[in-house]
């Protein structure tokens, strides 16, 4: 963790990362609820929203779309990922070199580590190479710290999530993305364990506006420094509204009730 | 996917790739229906047909024949491949470095990825190296995206093919070659998932002229950007005629009936 | 073992290494007895104590805190380590390159070798690379020589510890950190086997002041050249006092009774 | 396959390779029928015979003897090989780098590929590196194309040998050395499948003069471009005579009867 | 095998290698018969004896002691070795790079190959790298050629030892160290199979003076070019006497009876 290394993908020390690696990790099934979401352009457009501090995508998507958005979007190069056709112990192919990410103009790198997998040691060493190369290119480092695999019975257990967050600090991540461990207290403890490494919660699968915003607000109150979100934004019919609301909750210390006014019901009223 | 990176192996945004890697993948048995087809020179001659936008061959064949055809054929260097003597989980040896392919004058590289194989992670990382090296040499990238191996029950299932096509986009291919998923709608959906990455259908084993052309025409109408074909062309007695017909269907928006006039029956009449 | 290579992390030929890699090796559970100990800053402060000849931490912690302590703390870069979520044969990921450790200003490297593990050969070769790179950067080398894994029934058996210490010498460590083998004679024999490589005992889990100091004093008398300690210092309420006492025992030839006067009871009296 | 790349180890487009890698592949047992044959000098002397277009040996033998024969012998550096103490799936260690072979003055490289072995993919990738390095040094490439291992029931089946020969072409060998598939027709078919890659038959274990020469003559008539032979030459009492006869059959279109006149019976008469 | 490459570690074409890698291979148990033998300095002193043509030690020991003996001892850098805590198939970690050995002033390298182990192929490729790097630094190469592992029933069988010696020649060793195969004839046959590669016998475990000297003298008569010895020298009370005797037998063609006069009984008489 290098102070200020993540400046290009944070705002006031917090982060709202729009994650769009579902095409590799889950495949087209994630786009079915809203077929337009298969189009990366739609998500790049969303990423120009002021609330979004970085957009996480894979190499091929970045090659095709990022050049047109370089002025308006901060690029978080998600280096590794694997299709869910994979049947082995949790693992993730490194699909993108740091050097090429830098060449394309990435502001930071993202990297998944499956602690507890039989591939943990190999993945940690791949992370080492990526993290140190990122330093050479003055890029921040975000770890998707997801304990998973043989021996992990519950991957959102508070103790496991606290360990996951601490691994982010120990191994050199500036930001650690962890699963939500079920309570503001638990993610707060994870944040305390990560020290200066910022902890952001994963958005998870789509929920309703209030439930989602309350979870995020609680996490921020508890000590989390933001959110990394995909489906809970891009699968919505009015994704910009939820971004408005998230911006209020994460960066402007708004209450959930205030933030909810920025979503559809009140939006209609304001028109 | 880098816009225009595949310009040297496409025409009007579409591709007709003549594939001739059967000598390594299947061995001499594929040449038995027409023994002359074992001779690469015959296939290089076919590749000079205007309809063909690229010829995909392995290193040894390219070394021996490509220098004589460099002015008339676009070379798609098929980097990996393995004999069917191999009994392990699907895998493919990288038989050709990108650097040497560039030295021989290749216009693009071709690379097989067996998503779902226990070797998927390793193959994806080999693809990464090849894809990025291709960028250094301004070469386009074609992925043979073929989910296969442990856990794959049906490798032409529409959902699987759509995922295969999307992997092409996500991992940085300019063109994704996929198996035909059984209907124009299904390959159209795959094409939509691949976004700017062009989807081309595999020709598969030899069928009769009308059936073959109707499948291709349907795929093009559905959204596919072309065809990668081997046996369905080179095993025919009059392979140039089927190329004439394919050219009409793929590049000239001809109907199947119009295209069929370019094949033997009518050809005889026209002589 | 290169004479004087460890000068930056020893004092009068002896070492008191404060080890703080628990966040990766054991996770937050090690901070529970004293929640403040999760904060690396607290441990860096402790490491400014005159008694401490080096502080062993991982890359991420060093990135965040070492720059502020570079004048007052000698940095021992603990290069490898793995979470205890790992269920495989003992292994340790190399999380930090020697080059980057040198860039951050490290004075020496630390490296775990699990002799007897099915990963011993691979770990020894990783140690080779690290040890030789350390020589290029004029850094000392400390081996955590911990026989462990298939076939090891008792990892504190005197014969095993003597072998562990000798491996330190043979493979090129300047200091070998070994588990305490149960008696001053046994650690003395380990020290004799290590020859010019200094043997330091591991502090192990927390014990009371007298028991701890007597073990350390006995080890020093037996021939050990110091101590590498974590929980037995940082989990205490008054860690500076135990450092005062350890300094007396290790560097000043004080008796345990004299040293104990520097801890709480007498400290209170001195106030 | 690069036209003319094998010029230094062929004569009139044909090859007679004297192979002497038995010391590694089989061990001293192959020298027992004629103990003098253990002495490499004896075989280097044989290799000065006009009939021999190249001598295939391993690195250690080349280091010791080739400098004295560099003017009279063409060196085929056999890069890989493994003792028959090996009990695993067929594999072959790469014992010699192309760079060092070039430094010692080698004219070409030889490389074994066990198609069908569980090590096929790895061996093919090692072959790639060697083949491309050979091109950098203007050396020809000979593949010992020997399908073997799990799943191969009959390694001299005509179809298998034809596939083996084709793999030579596809992967970039200038010459493919294959087992004799039992008939002139079968080796002719293999030669046709290899196209411009020259197919040479393996000499196999020692047989009598007439049987051996008839097999070779038939293979040449069938389309093979020569022979790679070891025991069938060096185990004979008068190995130069059989080389005279082979030269007649391979390079001078002599009949077997004519060639046989050059061996012992008539040789005695001519003295 | 490169003529004269071993000149720095031989004398009149013969070698007496003092081997002291027991600390890694067997551990402290080998020093128990004579506890002083744990001290490398004692062995370096022995190595200054005229009889000793090279001292084989590991990296750590060389770092610590060789600089003081560089004028009087020829250093044979034993590159690989593994503790006997290892429970897997025979393998040996490469603990020392050739480059660093050269930097420390080594005259030659030593490398163990376990032919027949499931790790044979990997070890042979590591040997290749080491052997070729040694050539770059003008260092001789000694192979500890020890068939071992799955499938080896008797690792001192004459045929196995002859094969082991031949592998030394084939793979590029200047000297092959083999187990004593039980008779002067058998080691002579091994020497004949190794051709110009010198065969030296391993000293094995400690035996009495006459038995040991008779075995060595027989081996030399049979064709061996010397001895690599550890325990049979350094475990003795008067190791210099046995070196006197070995010098007589190996380099001065003395009889065993003459040589025995140089050991204790007569030494006492001569005082």
From TrEMBL, chains A, B, C, D, E:
| Source domain of life | Archaea
Q: Which GO terms describe its molecular function?
A: fructose-bisphosphate aldolase activity
Supply the SUPFAM superfamilies for this chain. Answer: Aldolase
> Which is a Pfam family this sequence falls into?
DeoC
Which SMART domains has this protein been placed in? DeoC (SM01133)
Active site (UniProt): 146, 177
CDD domains according to UniProt: DhnA
Q: What is its EC number?
A: 4.1.2.13
Concerning PANTHER family, the annotation shows:
3-HYDROXY-5-PHOSPHONOOXYPENTANE-2,4-DIONE THIOLASE, FRUCTOSE-BISPHOSPHATE ALDOLASE CLASS 1
By sequence similarity, the record places it as follows: Belongs to the DeoC/FbaB aldolase family.
What name is this protein filed under? fructose-bisphosphate aldolase
The root-end lineage is: Archaea, Methanobacteriati, Methanobacteriota, Stenosarchaea group, Halobacteria
């Amino acid at each position: 963790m290098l102070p200020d290394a993540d400046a290009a993908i944070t705002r006031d020390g917090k982060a709202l990362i729009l994650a769009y690696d579902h095409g590799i990790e889950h495949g087209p099934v994630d786009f079915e609820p809203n077929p337009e979401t298969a189009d990366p352009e739609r998500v790049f457009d969303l990423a120009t929203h002021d609330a979004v501090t970085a957009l996480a995508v894979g190499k091929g998507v970045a090659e095709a779309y990022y050049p047109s958005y370089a002025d308006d979007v901060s690029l978080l190069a998600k280096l590794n990922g694997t299709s869910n056709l994979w049947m082995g112990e949790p693992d993730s192919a490194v699909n993108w070199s740091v050097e090429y990410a830098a060449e394309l103009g990435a502001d930071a790198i993202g990297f998944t580590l499956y602690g507890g997998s039989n591939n943990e040691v190999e993945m940690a060493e791949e992370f080492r190479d990526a993290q140190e190369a990122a330093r050479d290119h003055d890029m921040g480092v975000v770890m998707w710290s997801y304990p998973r695999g043989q021996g992990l019975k519950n991957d959102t257990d508070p103790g496991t999530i606290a360990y996951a967050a601490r691994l982010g600090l120990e191994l050199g991540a500036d930001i650690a993305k962890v699963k939500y461990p079920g309570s503001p207290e638990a993610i707060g403890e994870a944040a305390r364990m990560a020290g200066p490494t910022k902890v952001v919660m994963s958005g998870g699968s789509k929920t309703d506006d209030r439930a989602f915003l309350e979870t995020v607000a609680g996490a921020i109150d508890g000590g989390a420094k933001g959110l990394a979100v995909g489906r809970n934004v891009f699968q919505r019919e009015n994704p910009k509204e939820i971004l408005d609301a998230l911006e209020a909750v994460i960066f402007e210390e708004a209450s959930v009730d205030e933030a909810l006014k920025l979503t559809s019901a009140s939006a209609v009223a304001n028109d």
